[in-house]
Design a protein that fits this description.
The structure is a homodimer. By secondary structure, the first copy, chain A, is of the alpha/beta class. Chain A is built from 14 helices and seven strands. Chain A folds into three domains: about 70 residues, no CATH class; about 210 residues, P-loop containing nucleotide triphosphate hydrolases (Rossmann fold, 3-Layer(aba) Sandwich); about 55 residues, Helix Hairpins. Chain A has a seven-stranded parallel sheet, sandwiched between helices. The termini of chain A are far apart. At the A-B interface, helix 4, helix 7, helix 12, helix 13 and helix 14 of A face helix 4, helix 7, helix 12, helix 13 and helix 14 of B.
């Protein structure tokens, strides 16, 4: 679906809610009942910038929250070309066949600017998108990683309340996005490919430090020996890395999204990770930490937003920042003045 | 100097100021007069967490600011082992010999935790440290990059007002630090070495994207052919990169900090960069943008700080965040409640 079409669809969804004048509790009930169209509508509400929509979204979140939290949240990342989408399609279909309900959410702040690839697009995942037990949602469009992160976190809760027990959160392999996604998932899976020379560089460079499980994709045909070697290199590197807070030693496995091999092994590994971290208490602790961080991030963003929209601050901001850029006022003094205006009332 | 000694020295400096009861205007005059001990004392004041010290520091900054801004601010980064310190020592001494006054500031948020290498240590730069026309200041100790950045920005102004016309800002080669230092300098120099296999990886990975000038260090002895090849690779890569906002095509050059070669060529390149960006207006625009960003960062940090220290917020924070982690309250609703407490008075 093109961006304009998605935008159009979001408007239609919100209009549907408004025209039916559905209350938060009705929407929450439909959502819990498993209605995918209601789920889509509720996510659209959380993504809306209209205050009344956001308010309704919060009411729904509060109502459904007791039913949320009962999924495994899996972050999936990898450099472009590693085959993330193909893997998610194959893995998602396989999971559905095992009786799971699978939601795919994407985090890609660049999608609005048109520079990056738009992720989570249903057109890339025909087979998965066609299943009634799967739900695919593209990245909320917003230039700002903080905004995208907030909306995605809320979407996770809505999907869980709607009965999805596996949440796949896809992101592109560019540093900051990964850290953000890492902050909202239980387990982080990196899709890698052999032969790009990136494997060990990646490990050195830190992105792989986030990974709990690395899947060396495209382990098929003539690629297989190279993939095996890459996996060996990773296993060795993992053993040299400092121990993670989770107490888990990262694992590297082979898979082929194309030939649909290594999927059950990947799931087994994720299950092993969950077992390990649930039993040592890290799983629960990690989720609590994430909630606390989310609250902090939210407060920081919202404080800044309120400050910028404060009437008197808005009046004075330009004058004072002009004095700063003309070097008449040191930054700290200028900040002090603006903060005193804000805190006066 | 060890960390404890530095801490001791800072206390002595502040006590000296207090015991002499020197007013901001006296300190500002001494600073402008070129007293290095006063410069050190003033920097210590900006780094102090005592409100009256910070207040005096701001008064000094306001008094000396008209004399600041007349230097070239050069960011210097590179992976550990690239020879940053050796280069800065050699380059700094060479610049002093040409009649410049050189200040070296370090940005290394990790220095407090003891994990990273403590930068800007005078013991590593004997020759430069001994010169009366050089000033070396280690990284302000603080676990927080924002705090370190603020203090370093203020130190730049103090050094400039004190007559230093070349400010070298050293940082370790780890992503986030570089971006921060990039936000406070006019030109960004990357020290690189051949043969680590990092050259092109670095270019792919984005750190090198910040660089205006790359110096391939250790271009001496048997290393020379490899350094030349690495330089060629970089030049090619730079031509494939999208044009920078500055309109400047990054340059790669050879140097040997050990044999003190390539130093005048490095300076020439920096001068060419300055000429280029001054004439197309980018230099000025960039500095104004930096001041605006600085003001924004400062305001955001300070807002958060005031919020956290608000009496009523402090009282309620724990109760409300407990409701969040027990999933009784959605994050946005909890944030709303806390913000309303804060904004009530």
């Amino acid at each position: 679906m093109k961006k304009e079409d998605r935008h159009q669809k979001a408007i239609q969804e919100i209009q549907a809610i408004r025209s039916k004048n559905l209350q938060a509790n009705e929407l929450a009930n439909d959502l819990i009942g498993g209605s995918l169209s209601t789920l889509a509508q509720c996510i659209t509400l959380t993504e809306s910038s209209v205050p009344s929509d956001r308010k309704k979204a919060q009411e729904i979140l509060q109502l459904v929250q007791p039913r949320a939290g009962k999924s495994i949240r899996i972050g999936i990342s990898g450099v472009p070309g590693a085959g993330k989408s193909t893997f998610i399609e194959a893995f998602g279909v396989w999971l559905c066949e095992q009786g799971h309900k699978v939601a795919v959410l994407a985090v890609d702040p660049s999608s609005e600017t048109g520079k990056g690839s738009i992720l989570g697009d249903k057109t890339r995942m025909h087979e998965l998108a066609a299943r009634p037990d799967a739900f695919i949602r593209p990245s909320p469009s917003s230039g700002n990683l903080g905004g995208v992160a907030r909306k995605t976190r809320e979407s996770i809760y809505l999907c869980e309340a709607s009965g999805f027990d596996v949440i796949l959160i896809e992101t592109v392999g560019v540093g900051q996005n990964e850290t953000t996604v890492h902050g909202m998932v239980d387990v982080f899976v990196l899709i890698s490919v052999a032969g790009t020379g990136d494997e060990l560089q990646g490990i050195k460079r830190g992105i792989t430090e986030l990974a709990d499980i690395v899947l060396v994709n495209k382990a098929d045909g003539s690629n297989l020996p190279m993939a095996k070697a890459a996996r060996q290199d990773m296993v060795r590197a993992f053993h040299l890395m400092p121990e993670k807070e989770s107490g888990w030693t990262p694992q590297a496995q082979l898979c082929s999204a194309l030939e649909k091999t290594g999927l059950s092994e990947a799931w087994e590994q994720i299950a092993r990770y969950q077992e390990h971290t649930v039993s040592n208490g890290f799983f629960e602790k990690h989720r609590l930490d994430q909630l606390n961080n989310w609250l902090h991030d939210y407060l920081r963003d919202e404080l800044w937003d309120r400050f910028l929209h404060h009437q008197e601050v808005q009046k004075q901001f330009e004058t004072i920042s002009k004095q700063v850029v003309s070097l008449k006022l040191p930054v700290a003094t200028a900040a002090e003045q603006l903060l005193n205006i804000y805190n006066k009332d």
